[in-house]
Write a structure and sequence with these properties.
Helix content is 32%, strand content 15%. The chain is α/β, with parallel strands linked by helices. Pfam families: MptE-like.
């Protein structure tokens, strides 16, 4: 793969050559190709994953042009297309745009969406045949500009694909909504101001949940405890039964990750989104209410109810529910919206925690309540933005929102107050 040409001088960094006649930019690839030729390195790294039929590949970086040449020299799989997206300053150092092909294109970051659109990206996206890959240079991140470049490209790609999936993925929600018609009998609007002037704690699945558990046990009698269903195992281990359990996911896996909530049927109220997985909902033998529309079509039979979730996660749904109950102090636990300092995304006892800490490949770095920096990803960011807007609405309604976790993402409308400084008004009788 010696056809890749590099100018004799480069402002980016030095050019290095290997015994196989291949050249690369040291700032990007260091010694990746010094002992083994590029084709062998790429085959070992990617295998057949880069050569699936009827797939649109968007590849971040070119590995000094060597990855581009490697793909170019292979036979393009039937129906597949490749768009390499590279930093402008790197492209200025490479002369690899000779003999352009219709199905293998290189572009600068600023032009990737326009180029991809001309290559029929929309047709591939509605078939869910898009794949975003990183070159080795982007994976290794030796060149500092690659980290923000990758985060921006990945964010824009995910926004695009998210919009395409809205229509594609609507079917499971509607299907579960129809199956749940017999289960969704009592609208959650009945909980309006049920705990007016009281304190609620909202327990989600982030790493700081472990920090809050002892405090919740200590103040259990004076709290309205609202928990997302996926942390039921952790609650059982801590000896805490929630007053309200919230669950929204329509997919079958929700039954597996939330099955421990069935242990709370005696004494806990289930508040489910209208499209909750029907197997999980029908397994619940306790009291329950639902949020969102009961019917998937317009009908005068539709009851007045709390709207469907305001955000992308069950935590957003639980937050809206807490405000409905009229509480004037809402304490968040396990609502971190970022990785812990040790790299975990979820609390102990969860399947995600059991996988171990995540490497530093988050989509963005954010500031935490204690002033440190932490990795996060786009789903957490989207949920955090919505939570912050919900907290702003809560303030207008006279509800104080507190996150006592020092390692949680700092949000402008949520107060950081250490646990020892939080005051809880005693309830005349327990919430249950």
């Amino acid at each position: 793969m010696s056809e890749t040409n590099l100018p004799p001088q480069s402002d980016l960094n030095a050019v290095v050559s290997n015994p196989f006649g291949e050249h690369s930019l040291f700032a990007i690839n260091r010694n990746t190709f010094q002992k083994t030729d590029a084709s062998s390195v790429f085959r070992s790294r990617y295998g057949d994953s880069l050569f699936k039929e009827n797939t649109f590949y968007i590849i971040a970086g070119t590995d000094s042009g060597l990855l581009y040449q490697y793909v170019k020299q292979q036979q393009v799989p039937k129906g597949s297309r490749y768009l390499f997206v590279e930093l402008a300053q790197v492209l200025d150092r490479l002369t690899i745009l000779d003999d352009p092909q219709e199905d293998i294109v290189i572009t600068r970051f600023e032009d990737w969406f326009e180029k991809a659109s001309k290559m029929d990206m929309f047709d591939y996206s509605i078939q869910d045949r898009m794949m975003l890959q990183r070159s080795l240079g982007v994976v290794h991140g030796h060149y500092n500009d690659y980290a923000p470049f990758w985060r921006e490209l990945k964010a824009e790609f995910e926004v695009f694909m998210g919009k395409q999936h809205v229509g594609i993925n609507a079917r499971p929600f509607t299907s579960q909504q129809i199956e749940n018609l017999t289960e969704n009998q009592t609208p959650a609007i009945c909980l309006t101001d049920a705990f007016k002037g009281k304190t609620a704690v909202l327990l989600a699945g982030g790493p700081s949940l472990d920090l809050l558990m002892p405090w919740v046990r200590q103040h259990r009698r004076d709290l309205l405890v609202i928990a997302v269903s996926r942390i039921s195992y952790s609650l059982l281990q801590a000896g805490i039964q929630p007053d309200i359990c919230v669950s929204v996911d329509p997919h079958a896996i929700n039954l597996n990750v939330s099955k421990e909530m069935l242990e709370f049927q005696d004494g806990t109220l289930l508040v489910n989104e209208y499209h909750l997985n029907s197997n999980l909902l029908s397994s619940w033998g306790g009291k329950k209410t639902f949020t969102g529309p009961r019917y998937p079509w317009a009908t005068p039979l539709e009851p007045t109810n709390l709207p469907a979730s305001a955000g992308s996660t069950v935590t957003n749904n639980a937050f809206s529910l807490a405000l409905l109950t009229g509480v004037t102090q809402l304490i968040l636990g396990g609502a971190d919206f970022c990785y812990s300092q040790t790299g975990y995304t979820h609390a102990s006892g969860s399947a995600e925690h059991a996988l171990g800490p995540r490497p530093m490949h988050g989509d963005k770095r954010v500031t935490t309540n204690n002033g440190m920096m932490a990795d996060t990803h786009n789903e957490f960011l989207n949920s955090a933005r919505t939570i912050n807007l919900q907290a702003e609405d809560a303030q207008a309604m006279g509800c104080r929102v507190i996150n006592p976790a020092p390692g949680s993402m700092r949000l402008s409308h949520i107060e950081y107050i250490p646990l020892d400084d939080i005051q809880v008004e005693a309830l005349e009788k327990t919430a249950r």
